[in-house]
Design a protein that fits this description.
heterodimer, A: 1000 residues, alpha+beta, Ubiquitin-like (UB roll), FAD/NAD(P)-binding domain, 6 domains, seven-stranded mixed beta sheet, 24 helices, 27% strand, B: 110 residues, Folate-binding fold, four-stranded antiparallel beta sheet, two-stranded antiparallel ribbon, 3 helices, 30% strand, globular, binds zinc ion
Amino acid sequence: MSAAGANRIAGAGRLTPANTVRFTFDGKSYTGLQGDTLASALIANDVHLVGRSFKYHRPRGILSAGPEEPSALVGVRRDASRHTPNIRATVQEIHDGLDAVSQNRWPSLTFDIGALNDIGSPMFSAGFYYKTFMWPKAAWKHIYEPVIRNAAGLGVAPKEADPDNYAARYVHCDVLVIGGGVAGLTAALSAAESGARVILCDENAHPGGALRFEGEARLDGMAGHDWAVQAAGRLAAMDNVRLLTRTTAFGYYAQNFVGLVERVTDHLAAPEPDMPRERVWQVRAGKVIIAAGAIERHMVFANNDRPGIMLASAARTYLNHYGVAVGRKVGVYTANDSAYGAAFDLKRAGADIPAIVDLRDEPDAGLVEEAGVLGIRVLTGHAVTGAGGKLRVASMSVEPKKGGRTEVIPVDALIMSAGWTPSVHMFSQSRGKVAWDEETGRFLPGTYAQECASIGACNGTDGLEATVNEALAVGEAAAKAAHPKAKKPSVAISVGSAGKWAGGMVGAGPGAEAGKVVKAFVDFQNDVTAKDIRLAVQEGMHSIEHVKRFTTNGMATDQGKLSNLHGLAIAAEALDKPIPKVGLTTFRPPYTPTTFGAIVNHARGKIFDPMRRTPMHAAEAAAGAVFEDVGQWKRAWYYPRAGEDMHAAVNRECRTVREVAGMFDASTLGKIEVVGPDAAKFLNILYTNPFLKLGVGRLRYGIMCREDGFIYDDGVVGRLAEDRFHVTTTTGGAPRVLHHMEDYLQTEFPDLKVWLTSTSEQWAVIAVQGPKAREIVEPFVEGIDLSNEAFPHMSVAEGTVCGVPARVFRMSFTGEAGYEINVPADYGRMVWDAIYERGAPMGMCLYGTETMHVLRAEKGYIIVGQDTDGTVTPHDAGLSWAIGKKKTDFVGVRGLKRPDLVAEGRRQLVGLKVKDGKSVLEEGAQIVDNPKQAIPMKMIGWVSSSYWSENCGAPIAMALVENGHNRMGETLYVPMPDGVIEVEVCGTVFFDEEGGRLHG
Amino acid sequence: MLLIHCPYCGEERPELEFRHAGEAHIARPENIAEISDEDFAHYFFYRDNPKGVTFERWRHMHGCGRFFNAVRDSVSDKFLTTYKAGEPKPDIADAANENQINTSKGQGAK
Ligand SMILES: [Zn+2]
């Protein structure tokens, strides 16, 4: 007995017996060999039971030896934060210290309480989610869902953040070859020898594909696998080739953009800390050559999911590559030639093959003869109708398929092959259309949508020689397409014997036909049986897309690599339609499960989204600002002093601004410089207001509508010269407003001589507001007479502030007299500090966005996006005065005349006084005119802005209310969970209604 | 990710640099203030949204900033051609999809 497992066969396989590796499975320690997958190492140690199934908690084993594995899913744990669920044991390479656990079982893998689902399984039949638990609603939430969530499901997600790094690279190449089997290697050699830049990716640790198990293949006089090793070596040595192993092509996107994910450290015992766990390659290829091979199908018979039952090619891979026999007494059930090779290899390695059960009446005579020579009994025209054993297959029941006596043959493993399904996933992802090949009964690439070619088994090309010739030609043609003068490749490959890939059967086998109450699994991962699919058809699902969703067949993480065709055949039979008439479901990325880490990649934490800080950010932070996120901006929200909560801080700031002065960072405002001889004409079209006669040095509040007449943005427009305007937008609106302006300028009014430049980041904006604003800023300002007479409200001028060039705006969003000082961003901090040093001893405070909001609400100034929602016109917002009455054209001029926009009873912006004088309404709260009506009540509006106003000594609010402008003085109601709040409709200006303070 | 040929830059660039900007060849009526409700509805709200060859606007947002037009197959996502704003609909699309031409609206700059 080998140290690396009782089932390890001396002299078999390609691993080195001396290179042992220790790993654990469910806490038990095992020895494997370097190069083993978890699956091969477990089988070597005679462990076939590796998990419990999703729905019925049935014991499950290892079905395949590759990425198509639907069944053997385990959790792999490196440390507390590195626990990855649902890892396919057939893909995960072992390393020293690998810690794997089975999933979906409690209390233990061999005794699982959830397996009761198996007994009560009628409850879990197809469509049970839709049918059983629809009513009553509350039962779903409190009874069904928690129970099902505990009973059904796969592995457990890690609870800590992923500590690993993931890398990303963009690459271009002439030829991308997907798959490193004989076809892919040959095509890559052919293209590379022709001078093309080639990338070859293969999902396994080493290229070779089917050559890993096909013992009889010979190329260039070498054993197939030796040739693959040599070919990979040749490719790796070429400068124009990038050979990527452990790399899966997971997505094929538009214009030959293919996503690859390379697993960099998962196979290493002690990865370097700076290595990425995975690397995503985003490849743009001139030509894509798909050499994805074919996937063997299982046979559909009763209890075909017992551990120890697996694909014939898998058993052959475990033997020929890993040196592991899957059992000592191995039954064979096939509808296809290729299982014979597996049986013969196992027999020669010393296993007992009690029988090859062949569903076909007349299999290849040569194979039957060879079986005879080896002393293997072949039962043609027979079927395996059931498997005995529970935690491990113990027997197979064999019957003539026409009916007859059942023979129960003891086995400890059962290998099967229903035939091979060409792997058209990548082709289908490229939006190519598959076509049904009647003769061979399989879907093959039909109409191509992109610059790609399929070769080898995935193209339905049978036999080694045909595959090699096809690959040589396609590789050369691909290189020629990229480099018309490419030289002829010197690759010449002579080919020996080869297996066949065509033939086989699809659908349920004997014993699992319609009417039989057995569990013959089609989809192992989602626990879908042949019976479930028939039930779906019976229930009226006639499209394969509906059958798929009703049964969940093919909807698990393996995306039905083994099950789709069987499911389709069973549905077609039940519908009495030919397979191509029922159709194939669409393949979508990712080809195999891809980690969130790889996809999210660098875009996490601080660099998930850029963080924007104003030039004064550090000064504000030092002054104790609490920041809030406004889009990507960090904005000072309020400045609490010792002992103050937010409420107290905001109240103090609000009072101070009105009594003394306050300074506010308005740098995040969007700014657009509009320049050119036609600038005024252009703004006249973009805004509802008239701009032609705006004087130089004057400001105007402007409203921007869309063509439909709804408010799109607002801001202040300053005329600096006849041909130069400084336009501000809302903080969030800057990019879309510029886009909107560019759209009109470039495509509707291209003859206007106007240039638009975003200057949002160019200016730092310091607002100083309040009765003492002028006194505070005056000493710093040169070149501008700040007196009321020379520089009244709504003026703009250029001068210097603290010696740096500045644009000073006399304007107000608080209702107080004040200035917005624009200086080049780099000087923002210096000017801010200078004003603060002077202002603070005079009683000036810093105020944040919350105070800004309260102060503007006290004045009834709207915030676009808060007091408007995309269905509010300037009239609705009480801003009819901002529409140029004499203008014949502006964006929105026609929309504003639409019947619904001029109708009575629209929701209009009003103020609300709260009758109890203390309740602050909730923003977003709904308003009704009769609180006694039955629920659901008719809502007539909603609260858009609401604050406690320290300056008014009362709560204030604005709301959009049906026919609001005609409801002044009316009492309305805001029903809340703990009572109805009475409000009175009023105007939107709560403070200094005459506006005298603006001019102070 | 699509590659899009900007007719102003004269280069194929990744989709990330571009922004889709709706159906092409819908010109803002010159007498917009006077048009009927129905005409306004057709100008502003109605869109063809064809399955197959579609005329659409794109902007090279993070490149030259220019708006341009494209002919794209909405089934395959393939760009048949791109051309500068203001240029007429190219023939290639006439041949590819006659029905679309019959229902198209105007030849404005957009
Ligand atoms: Zn461009």
